[in-house]
Specification:
Helix content is about 20%, strand content about 35%. By secondary structure, the protein is an alpha+beta fold. The protein folds into two domains: about 280 residues, Gyrase A, domain 2; about 70 residues, Beta Barrel (Elongation Factor Tu (Ef-tu), domain 3), CATH 2.40.30.110. It has eight helices and 20 strands. A hairpin with a 5-residue loop joins strand 16 and strand 17. The strands form four sheets. The chain has a six-stranded mixed beta sheet, with helices on both faces. Strands 15-18-17-16-19-20 form a six-stranded antiparallel beta barrel. The protein has a five-stranded antiparallel beta sheet with strand order 6-7-8-5-9.
Length: about 375
């Protein structure tokens, strides 16, 4: 019998900082990542009340350039990239002809190229997807994997912008939501987008990989709380933000997930016919929030049961919400299940009552974007 040897976990440029800080490390998407430093609840609350930092350097970065870059990429995503001006970013998805999602990503438009930030677990899958469709560009598009060049640090929380302004000397208020700027931190120029996946204000800061530790150390010294994957998950779930492999997959469409607002591409792209039809007719199922009337959280895969005893769905994500003080979950349910209806969730063979709610569970005050000249 041949012994199968697991591939070693990859390490981000900040791995040694996490270990030295006593973080509990776990494998995630082939990477060794910190799940928590102190406690998930403490890190979660630090982001909701002040500011925290996350190492998200395991994410992939692909550079797309050339005279047909936007036109080509626009055939693969439902976002309207022709309307994306220099200095701005957009959240979107790679979609299949069936309308399902290959992966969700953020597209940043710089003066001479687009930068795609994709999920760590899907880096190889996304690269293969782009390569598969690249011949359609007839040599007018250049695609580069620049993931190893960059570290990515998410700086999140209500104090994040003021803290970065103090440290960099830049005018942070001039950068609206999904705007792009450059911070000078620890003497290093760092491109950044006013983006994030926590439901709070903040920036995701690109740092040259060999300089990442200097920037991380500066942020920690100035009072930022290092946060792990555990808090990142509870934060994103409270904010109703989907995670690939849970709320997103190859068979789920943006309309079903409640992201119809992100389907704005007027031209042809993979899956457009399905999305147009679902927008017009309504999907057969929708992603809903669930609030449990119990202290025990629902976990992925738990059955959702209708009042008449029929299994109508399964939990996609579930956790105890530190902000709200009770368990919450998401599930795809038939379209007829609307907010304020009641269902049950089978938790360890018990049927726990739950209330259907609209997402998100938590919403912060919106940032008022400012217009920038490209």
């Amino acid at each position: 019998m041949t012994e199968t040897i697991a591939a070693p976990l990859r390490q981000t440029p900040l791995h040694n900082r996490h270990v030295a800080s006593g973080a509990r490390m776990v494998g995630f998407g082939g990477w060794s990542m910190p799940v928590q430093y102190t406690s998930i609840i403490a890190e979660h609350q630090a982001v909701r009340s002040a500011w925290g930092i996350f190492d998200v350097s395991h994410m992939g970065e692909f550079k797309v350039s050339g005279p047909e870059a936007r036109e080509w990429l626009g055939c693969l995503v439902p976002a309207n990239l022709e309307a994306l001006s220099v200095g701005h970013a957009v959240y979107t998805m790679f979609t299949r002809p069936t309308g399902g999602v290959v992966d969700d990503l953020i597209v940043y438009r710089f003066a001479d190229h687009l930068l795609l930030v994709v999920n760590a677990a899907n880096r190889d899958k996304d690269w293969a997807w782009l390569q598969r469709h690249l011949p359609e560009a007839h040599g007018q598009v250049t695609l580069e994997d620049v993931s190893e060049d960059w570290a990515l640090i998410a700086v999140q929380g209500p104090s994040a912008a003021a803290s970065l302004e103090r440290l960099s000397g830049g005018d942070v208020s001039a950068t609206g939501s999904f705007g792009i700027t450059t911070f000078r931190l620890a003497g290093i120029d760092c491109p950044a987008g006013r983006t994030g996946y926590t439901g709070e204000d903040g920036f995701e800061v690109l740092v040259p990989a060999d300089q990442a530790a200097r920037v991380w150390d500066l942020l920690v010294a100035e009072g930022a709380s290092p946060c792990g994957l555990g808090a990142r998950d509870t934060l994103r779930l409270e904010a109703g933000l989907p995670l690939y492999g849970h709320e997103w997959d190859d068979d789920t469409t943006p309309i079903e997930a409640g992201f119809g607002w992100a389907v704005r591409n007027p031209g042809p792209y993979l899956g457009r016919d399905v999305h147009v039809r679902q927008k017009a007719e309504g999907p057969a199922r929708r992603l809903r929030g669930l609030v449990l009337e119990d202290r025990a959280p629902a976990r992925e895969g738990y059955e959702v049961v209708s009042p008449d005893g029929e299994v109508v769905g399964k939990v996609a994500s579930g956790t105890f919400s530190p902000t709200l003080g009770h368990p919450v979950a998401t599930a795809y349910l038939p379209a007829g299940f609307v907010p304020e209806q009641t269902v049950s969730i089978r938790v360890r063979e018990r049927l726990v009552p739950a209330r259907v709610v609209a997402l998100p569970f938590y919403r912060r005050p919106a940032i008022q974007p400012t217009r920038r000249t490209p």
